Amino acid sequence: MRSEIKFIADGMLGSLARWLRIIGFDTEYFSGRDKYFLSYRARNQGRIVLTRDRNFVSQNRPISIFIESENLRLQLREVKKKSNLKFDREKFFTLCSLCNLPLEKKKLEDVLIYVPEYVGKTQKNFSQCKRCSRIYWQGTHYQRMLEFINSVEADEE
After folding, report:
1. What is the DSSP secondary-structure string of 125-149?
2. The pLDDT of residue 90
3. What CATH number is associated with residue 66?
4. pLDDT tens digits for 20-29?
5. 123 occurs within a structural domain
6. Is the domain of 19 the same as that of 70?
7. Strand pairing partners for 151?
8. Arithmetic mean of pLDDT over the chain
9. Are residues 12 and 85 in the same domain?
10. Residues 72 and 113 occupy one common structural domain
11. For the residues of 1-30, what is the DSSP string, one character each?
12. Alpha carbons 14 and 2: distance in angstroms, whole number
């Protein structure tokens, strides 16, 4: 069984980190300024650093990927291409977009008091993060998010 690729995104790439989690890739977010610690953490945890810092990449070439674009869609395409990622639809929406932990399936009765009344009446599938307790469901935003992911995969250059 091959180990899955893991990332750590530096402070300039918070949105990218969040979307990689949504797509199902273990991605930490590093908001600190200490680039030595970032490098140490990446090596220690077997992660690839995603950064817009050219100097960092030149000093840490084997463990880093330079992200050229400022556009999120193009950033995701860059990561996909430069790390030879394959998106697996089974892994979409399985990690907390904030905490990066696997989500746990929940029954309606477990979350009913925490979600808006309309959501409780219209949704069946729920997940929750153990750490932050955030609850996820497939609301109207879900389809838009899938369309965005599909647009990342489409028309790749």
Report:
1. -EEE-TTT--EEE--HHHHHHHHHH
2. 95
3. 3.40.50
4. 999 999 999 9
5. yes
6. yes
7. none
8. 93
9. yes
10. no
11. -PPPPEEEEETT-HHHHHHHHHHT--EEEE
12. 27
- pTM for the full predicted model: 0.91
* Structural element, H or E, at residue 43: helix 35-45
What pLDDT score was predicted for residue 156? 57
Instruction: Specify the amino acid at residue 124.
Output: K
Contact indicator for 91, 97 with CB cutoff of 8 Å:
no
Q: Which two tokens stand for residue 40?
A: 């140490």
- Beginning with the edge strand found earlier in the chain, give each strand of the sheet holding 64-66 in spatial order: 27-30, 6-10, 47-51, 64-66
The answer to whether position 99 is within a domain reads no
pLDDT at 157 over 50: no
* Tokens linked to 33: 């300024």
Tell me: pLDDT of 2 over 50: no
Same domain assignment for residues 73 and 113: no
State the Cα–Cα distance between residues 33 and 104, nearest whole angstrom. 33
* Token couple for 46: 């077997």
Task: Domain of residue 117: give its range.
Answer: 104-153
In terms of domains, do 75 and 119 share one? no
Provide the 10 A C-beta neighbour count for residue 50: 28
